[in-house]
Every structure is written in C-alpha cells, then in structure tokens.
Specification:
With 371 residues, the chain is mainly alpha-helical. The protein is 60% helix and 0% strand. It binds magnesium ion.
Length: 371
C-alpha cells in the first residue's frame, strides 16, 4: 500500500494515443520498459558523465550514473511509500536528453543555437526524443509515454513559466510535479556528487589530503573509517567515508521530506501539486554540506586544467560540425535533410544532441578533417 500522497497508477492522465491495458504490467511499468528498450537509453553508455574513456573504462558514464541515481531514487521512494515504478522510469529517463561530451557539449550546443536566436535545453530535448525521435512502434511515433512521465521529464530540476512556454501548457506549469518526479532531482545530485569524489580520486585529479582538508563532512567520516579500520588501505578508508556520506545524504533526504509532508499535512497528490514549493528536500544542515561538496568539486575537479584540452576539443567538434551542417544541410542524412527546410539550426541541433561521444568524433574525422 502506498502513502496517501503517492501517485497511484490509476490516477494517470494516460497516454497521448490510447492503448489497451497490458495483461500484467501497469502503465508505469510499461513506460519503464519502453525507456529501457529505447535507442536513446542505450546511447547513454557512450556519453560522457565527467570523464571520457581516455581516463579509464571504470569511470561513470551517463548510463552507470543513471543506474546509480535510479538506485538512490528507488530507496527514497520505498521509504516514503511513493510509487516506485514511476520513480524508476523517471530516474532511468532523466539524462537521455544530454548531448555528447557532458556539460561542455551542452554549453557548446547551446552557444551554437543562440547564434540563431534559439537555445538548447536537455529536458526539452528529452521530451522531443520520447515524443517523436524514437521510432519503435507501428501505431504511433515516439514511446507514447504516460502524461506523468512526460511531465516529470520537463520538470526535472526546473520550473517553467506558462507565458514563456505556452507550448508546454498541458503540463500543469502552475503546479508542482508529483513527489515521484521531485525525488529525482536530489537523487541525481546525491548520486553524482558522491561518485565524482570517487572518480576524481581515481583519475588522480583530486588528492585524498586535499579532499580531507577542504570538505569537513568527508573528513568527519574519514576519521571514523580510520578509527574503525586503522590498518586498511587509504582507498578503502576513502570508500568507507564516501559510503557514509552517501548514506548521510539519503537518510537526511528521506527524513526531511517525511517531516515536511507531516508538518504540512500533505495527504494527497492534489496537496503535493498545490504546495507552494517542492517538498522533496534535504534539511538545512545537510543541504549546506551538499553545497560545500559541490563547490569543492566545481573549484577543484570540473574545471581542472587537465580536463581543459578535452573540453576545448569537445567545443570545437560540436561548433564546427554544427556550422558545417547548418551551411550545408544537403549533406545531412535523408530524414534530417527533409526537415532542415523548416529550421536548419533546430534540425542540426537535434541530430548532434542524439549522438554519442564516439559517433560525433567519427563524424568530425569524416566531415571536418576531410574538408
Ligand atoms: Mg543526472
């Protein structure tokens, strides 16, 4: 039995194209399976999270990050009595709109679009993928996902104003998304924040002593690990500290969200939707710790000088390919060529955003290097 504020599948507004019910999978289970079987999901394997394959095969990719975020989101959902199936599909789909090369790729693509008075947003792109770009079914374009999954996709970590985005009107822009969508944002943040310490250390770009001296939460847990396992290797003590940090954030997340639900007497999905702010949250202290972690990672890892040549190359690859295809839309693959008449920039952006790191590098070698 779910909590009264959990989103029951029977409350769903349904799919764009009506379909008969499945014999034993409910609508959200089917949505999860459709996402898992989609091409965009498989491509996550070859998209950068923070580190490219140049470093090692055991760093997180967008795919393994997605699975870690899903694990955290399901744990939280289960403890809060939320709809775990809806949470799982939202976690699995939350990053499918990301272009190649991580955030460097996203910034470069957005900059290209702004030259044409347009912009790139990965949530909107994810919606376009599940609505139109996936071709799997004979009966309809896209994946024909339920309303709540589409709503969760665009409301991932941001709100939209109805005046600025009238085309999103159907998604109840004046309301908060169900809790199942709200938990994804923080599950995502907790997943990558803890993982980036791990990959940062493994890459050699972060030093253990530096983390210890700059991140008090880590230092506190590292000391506990040292006390419990004085003879263990430093990396194992590091792992123990990260494990405790992860547990600290997840436990606080569950406790604080439950507290807010209780205090505000939230007893239905309607009450969640009408609440003036999102209810899934860390408490003030844990939130300050999370920000401290994030600030450290921004200062010491994400813009590390050793990552710069790769980021600059990513920008060059995206910018040069974008410019090439906008100026020569006749060289695009047929499906894109046909659509390019309407807005070459938008079509080229869609084409590039769907690419994996490997594929765009191969295109760059073939198209630009061959010029
Ligand atoms: Mg993510």
């Amino acid at each position: 039995m779910g909590a009264p504020y959990a989103f029951g599948v029977e409350q769903s507004r349904g799919r764009r194209h009506a379909e008969p019910a499945h014999a034993y999978r409910d609508a959200f289970q089917r949505d999860r399976d459709r996402v898992l079987h989609s091409r965009a999901f498989r491509r996550l394997e070859n998209k950068t999270q923070v580190f490219t394959r140049r470093y090692s095969d055991h760093f997180r990719t967008r795919l393994t990050h997605t699975l870690e975020a899903a694990q955290i989101a399901r744990t939280v959902a289960q403890q809060l009595g939320l709809n775990e199936e809806l949470v799982e599909v939202l976690a699995l789909v939350h990053d499918i709109g990301h272009p190649p090369f991580g955030h460097a790729g996203e910034r470069a693509l957005d900059a290209c679009m702004r030259e044409h008075g347009l912009w790139f947003d990965h949530n909107l792109h994810a919606l376009r993928i599940v609505e139109s770009f996936e071709h799997r079914y004979a009966a309809f374009p896209g994946l024909n996902l339920t309303f709540e999954v589409r709503e969760g996709i665009i409301k991932h970590s941001r709100d939209w104003s109805i005046d600025e985005y009238p085309e999103l009107r159907e998604y109840l822009l004046d309301q908060r998304p169900p809790l199942e969508a709200q938990v994804i944002d923080l599950a995502d943040e907790i997943a990558y924040t803890t993982a980036d310490f791990d990959d940062g250390l493994e890459s050699g770009l972060l030093a253990l002593e530096e983390i210890r001296s700059r991140v008090p939460l880590f230092e506190c847990f590292f000391r506990i690990a040292e006390h419990e396992y004085p003879g263990a290797r430093a990396k194992l003590k590091f792992n123990e500290a990260i494990k405790r940090m992860l547990d600290r954030f997840v436990t606080d997340f569950i406790g604080e969200t439950a507290r807010r639900l209780r205090e505000r007497k939230i007893d239905s999905v309607e009450a969640v939707r009408r609440s003036p702010e999102r209810l899934a949250s860390l408490g003030a202290e844990a939130e300050a710790e999370r920000r401290e972690c994030k600030q450290f990672l921004y200062e010491r890892l994400y813009y590390h000088t050793q990552l710069m040549p790769e980021k600059q190359h990513a920008e060059r690859v995206i910018t040069e390919l974008f410019t090439h295809w906008v100026n020569h839309p006749e060289t695009l693959p047929r499906g894109y060529r046909e659509k390019a008449g309407e807005s070459a920039a938008r079509v080229v952006c869609d084409y590039i955003a769907g690419m994996t790191d490997n594929y765009i590098l191969a295109q760059y070698a073939a198209v630009i290097a061959g010029e």
